[in-house]
TrEMBL record:
This is Uncharacterized protein.
Length: 117
């Protein structure tokens, strides 16, 4: 898997007006910085300016500490996202952005694995 980009957390929102007994959905907002691959070798760089801001809208699942939802660029849905809390200081997320039906395909799907926040 190629390294694609870096996500910097810039916001979080918890929606608390829900029916009793219903899990509260929440959103996480990130600035996305593209990774610039070198022409040769292994040492690239991260773009100093954010390319865009993306939002993850998440809900609890039936599995404890596992959340699933959708990623958005503004109102455009980018794909599915999931996050699993491993401990109070260690989380693991997998973001797999795939082309939605009817959308133009990118050269390759973007994938990102976050292991430490």
């Amino acid at each position: 898997m190629d390294y694609h980009s870096y996500l910097k957390g810039v916001g979080a929102r918890l929606f608390t007006l829900v029916r009793p007994g219903t899990p509260c959905p929440f959103s996480l907002t990130f600035d996305q910085f593209s990774y610039l691959h070198p022409a040769t070798g292994f040492k690239g760089a991260v773009n100093p300016a954010a390319d865009r801001q993306i939002r993850f809208d998440l809900r609890a699942t039936t599995t404890q500490d596992f959340y699933r939802g959708s990623a958005f660029d503004g109102l455009t849905e980018l794909g599915e996202v999931s996050i699993r809390w491993i401990s109070s200081s260690y989380r693991r997320a997998r973001v797999q952005l795939n082309t939605l039906q009817g959308a133009l395909s990118a050269d390759r799907p973007a994938a990102l694995v976050l292991q430490r926040f």
